Amino acid sequence: MGVRTWIDSWPVYRQLTGTDPLGRGAAARSGPTARLTPRVASADRVVKSICPYCAVGCGQNVYVEDGRVTQIEGDPDSPVSRGRLCPKGSASLQLTTGDAREHHVLYRRPYGAGWERLDLDTAMDMIADRVIEARRAGWQWDVDGARTRRTLGVASLGGATLDNEENYLIKKLFTALGAIQIENQARI
Amino acid sequence: MAECHPVGFQWVMEAKARGAKVIHVDPRFTRTSAVADVHVPLRAGSDIAFLGGVVNYVLGHDKYFRDYVVAYTNGPVVLGEDFRDTEDLDGVFSGFDPQSRTYDDGTWQYAGMEVRAVSGERDRDDPRGAGGRSVSEAARGEAHGSGGADIGAGEPERDETMTHPRCVFQVLKRHYARYTPEVVERICGVPQDLFRQVCELVTENSGRERTTAFAYAVGWTQHTVGVQYIRAAGVLQTLLGNIGRPGGGILALRGHASIQGSTDIPTLFNLLPGYIPMPHAHQRQDLDSFVRAEATAKGYWGEMRSYLVSLLKAYWGDAATADNDFCFDYLPRLTGSHSTYETVLAQLEGTCKGYFLMGENPAVGSANAKSQRLGMANLDWLVVRDFSLIESATWWKDGPEIETGELRTEDIGTEVFFLPAAAHTEKAGSFTNTQRLLQWHHQAVEPPGEARSDLWFTFHLGRIIRDRLAGSADPMDWPVLDLTWDYATRGAIAEPVAEAVLAEINGHDAEGRPLSSYEQLADDGSTVCGCWIYCGVNADGVNQAARRKPGTEQDWVAGEWGWAWPANRRILYNRASADPDGNPWSERKALVWWDAEQGQWTGHDIADFGRTKSPFYRPPPGARAADALSGTDAFVMQADGKAWLYAPAGLTDGPLPAHYEPQDSPFPNLLYGRQRNPVRQVLPSRPDNRYQPSGGEPGAEVYPYVATTYRLTEHHTAGGMSRWQPYLAELQPEFFCEVSPELAAERALEHTGWATVVSARGVIEARVLVTDRMTPLTVHGRTLHQVGLPYHWGPNGYSTGDAANELLHLSLDPNTHIQETKAFAVDIRPGRRPRGPAAPALVRAYRARAGIDEHTGTEP
Predict the structure, then answer these.
(1) pLDDT tens across B232-243, in order?
(2) Which range marks the domain in which residue A183 is found?
(3) To 5 degrees, how large is the angle CA B16–CA B204–CA B42?
(4) Domain tally, chain A
(5) Measured between CA atoms, how close is A40 to chain B, in angstroms?
(6) Cβ of A35 under 8 Å from any chain B Cβ?
(7) One domain for residues B551 and B696
(8) Residues 43-82 of A with CB under 8 A from B
(9) What residues of A are in contact with residue B263 (Cβ under 8 Å)?
């Protein structure tokens, strides 16, 4: 470090000689502070998204670095939200990357006392078998002489937090299976 | 709105900065009240009396927008001679059948109309002899979504002077004549001066030059008269000319990112995509008889066959042909209501054996939460897809019934699969926000571990099931095997391509070219479209929902951000923003107008009208569907092209909103001999779902306080997306109730101490927040205290507490089957609730003291 740099690093000197005589701005700025950058500055890319909480539909910018989401902020371009997010939207980084999220399939066997691990493929196969069985058990070709072509064996609840494309597939599949007890939060 | 939709509320504040007056009507003083010009605390459950009072003021003081009402509403239409109002029959309309607890709407019709030609095939004449019961149960009033039901053929008799004693306008006047400021004060607890101030502010700000908007959070729907709450606002806004115009409207502030989308592309029992009703079981029903019964003769619902055939083609592709009715018979049929609450009953009965929960937490988030858990405890299997171990995934080991000893883990046979869900950042797709705006979210990263999107789950579940059933000759399996289910996938986890699903929703023609408008849909099988109202979202093969031209680079309509259904229109029925000749009612409120030189509608928004249909067009005799709409029929989805001040069809509980008390209420109905909505849907009074005595009935005094549930800024519905976030848990760390200092003194409740809240269904404990944000009201001449209960909690996560939904009953709106969570009656006492078996014992002791049995509160 040269003498000049050494003297410049002394806040009192900067306060007396610089543009900040009150010592509340540039004069008081430390090296570490000067080196600070926004946590989004090193992001590899910014992905355009929409807040997953309420139905206002605020725009979100999702910052990704090394294949991980590092920050979620309001999107100033959105004419809906103009860059703002509420406390929930602002917490969506925790929602998506927090350690409260489960990353593995869990299984509770009938009359079981606790969870067990199950791999995803096995779980999918078991669920498919159960759907086929419950569908048949609850099948009704007709009710009081009128054709119904349906099952009361399988029901589903959920969709208001899902994408339109997801709801479309759910309704399509379950309708083809003959299930009618398909519902979501919009009823509640 | 500042609490639950804070970012949307910035526009209210923008309006206020430009001089708008903000009125907040709510039992509680909230963050909205804090910045409103006027806060009107009222009794929860009394809104129709309040709104009816404003309607009476508007009519009595000639404050309605006469030219608008005459041109665009059914105000001038004359009703048939047989109609009788609640004023004539002490609280019921004509056509009431106390036995079946239903209305026959035959006497509600317009004069001069033919009897509905199709009514023989309508569900009211159900061949099984059940009358209209099973269909009126089936949420039919909700079908058609953006428009009214059919009204039959013919031209209604009209009186342009609106003086005919049987015209809608005069019927309306008589219906609301007794909703005076004095009555509003007695029922709602709103002082007359304050009420008159609201009336004056609303009417001064409505007319040619000005418009007033109503915003409601969906708490308005959560009443046994929920639909009629919104109808009451509809009547008022239509009288004032505030529909279809900028700054007007009735804005439903919905609570989930795509709850509008999940209604449009429904995961709902009674609807197919685009508000086409699910078929009801009939003998010998085919596609043509279904369409004849459901389509309207006039307006865009006249094209229902095109919408439905295009949907069947999207579902069953080449298997759907004209020869086989486009596989119409593959659709399962309803017999009555199969709503989420009937599903719980079916679980308790054992008919429903398997249950999927996809991003929903009914164990604490649905009314009468105990029934929800007991239903799940009776299943063969349960699949829970969520981020964390919500209460609906863990009730079998740590739910309230385990603590009370009512259930034992080792006795519960339900097999439970918990599958972790992908977050919105880990999948691509569209949300439809509360203003019908589709916005695409792009995928940022891959989902972690075994987390998957619901797109992945549903697609692969279907793929496995289809593999299992391949080769089956059983006709039961044909709809599954014939299903078009060949979506492209990508990546290591084989995620379906969401854009491919969007393209199917949008639809294409016979050559595979993307469609750009539902007006292109055909009924001959040559077009494919998964949801007709979303047709155009992929126009030109471009994902219009992903458009993101910055708002600062657009005009105030911002039509190039996302895509709004239908046809990217931002304000529905905006033809009404112009006068009958097609000129804006005022320059200040111009939105769309007729350009005579160009021969088309133009303006800031896309006209919700035939683009080249002149205001002076009059349909030739015999015209049908859209062609039958005249140049002044602004309400293009309605069967008569008019906004309905009076609903001659489509509602199960009356053509006009009338004030009834909530299912559980400490007060008698001041206006009619009927205490409650006589056709509300009362689910069986099981021991866990007892109803309370009300008003003057003995035992009502056991539950003397009105309670209401609501949300906070810092949490989200039943907490599945907020109670596990440390930031949010820190902001609102536990369940609490809000009470006034007066109630605290009356019941010895201590600020930050504990209170126990009891209903006939359950008992919960909450931290006490003593605050003058809760105002004691004078109702029926006596003091009423209200208890505020945010409903976000359950025992899991970082922020914990009892679930307010333990207290709720299952008495529902008869049109929508939505529960009454916004107004009920409770008792409150100091201290924590009992533990173990003593908790249900306390609830039973209250019931005994109130004399409650299975008949209490169930009468029509």
Answers:
(1) 999 999 999 999
(2) 138-188
(3) 70
(4) 4
(5) 14
(6) no
(7) no
(8) 47-60, 62, 64, 67-69, 72, 76-82
(9) 186
Inter-CA distances, B518 with B87, B300, B327, B497, Å:
44, 10, 21, 24
How sure is the predictor about B121, in pLDDT bands with cuts at 50, 70 and 90?
Answer: very low
Q: Map residue B499 onto helix, strand or coil.
A: helix
Give the pair of three-digit tokens for residue B212: 């007033």
Residues 124-143 (A) with a CB less than 8 A from some CB of B: 124-132, 134, 136-139, 141-143
Cβ atoms B823, B706 nearer than 8 A: yes
* Residue at which a domain ends, from B511, B534, B568: B568
Clarify whether residues A107 and A119 are in a common domain: yes
Within an 8 Å CB–CB cutoff, is residue B548 touching chain A?
yes
Same domain, B502 and B581: no
Residue A171 CA to residue A156 CA, distance in Å, equals 10
Nearest chain A residue (CA) to B360: A158
In a domain, B722, yes or no: yes
Chain A residue whose CA is closest to B457? A124
Host domain of residue B170: 42-94+155-255+570-657
Q: Which of B128, B265, B439 sits opposite A171 (nearest CB)?
A: B265
Asked if the Cβ–Cβ distance from A111 to B412 is below 8 Å, we say: yes
ipTM value, please give it: 0.96
Question: pLDDT tens digit string along A2-18?
Answer: 888 888 888 898 899 88
Q: Mark whether A110 and A93 lie in a shared domain.
A: no
Contacts of A68 in chain B (CB under 8 A): 445
Residues B375-400 pLDDT 10s: 999 999 999 999 999 999 999 999 99
Q: Which residue from A58, A131, A178 is facing B7, i.e. has the nearest CB? A: A58
Nearest CB to A53: which of B385, B552, B716? Answer: B716
Domain count, chain B: 4
Reported confidence tier of residue B467, pLDDT bands at 50, 70, 90: very high
DSSP codes, B144-205? TSSS-----SSPPPB-TTS-STTBHHHHHHHHHTT--HHHHHHHH---HHHHHHHHHHHHHT
Are A124 and B460 within 8 A, CB to CB? Answer: yes
Tell me the whole-structure pTM to 2 decimals.
Answer: 0.95
Report, as an integer, the average pLDDT of B151-168: 92
Segment B332-350 mean pLDDT? 96
Residues of B in contact with A126 (CB under 8 A): 417
A40 lies in a domain? no
b/e map of B415-443 (b: 16 or more CB within 10 Å)?
Answer: bbbbbbbbbbbbbbbbbbbbbbbbbbbbb
B837 contacts chain A (CB < 8 A): no
B538 in the same domain as B474: yes
The answer to whether residue B564 sits within a structural domain is yes
Pairing of β B23-25 and β A179-183: unpaired
Do B592 and B711 fall within a single domain?
A: no
